[in-house]
Amino acid sequence: MRRGFPWARHAVLIVVSAIMLLPFYWVFKTAITNENIYAFPPRLLPQDPHPYNFVDVWYLIPFPRYLLNSVIVSVMAVIGNVVLNAMAAYALTQNFRAKKLVVLLLLSCMLIPFQATIIPAYLITARIGLLNTYLGLALPLLSTIVCIFIYKAAFEAVPRSLVEAARMDGLSEWRIIAHVLLPLSRPAIATNVILAFIWSWNSFMWPLIVTRDANMQTLPLGLARFLSYMEDTTGALYAFVCMVLAPGILVFLMAQSAFIRGLTHGATKG
Amino acid sequence: MRLPRWMLSRWFIVPATLAAVVLGWNLHVAANATGEVRGRVVDATGRPVAGATVLLFERSFVVNTEKQRVVTDAAGAFRFQGNASHAVQLQADAPAGKSERVTLRLLFRAQDADLPAPLVIAR
Question: Which CATH class is domain A20-42+49-264?
Answer without folding.
Answer: mainly alpha
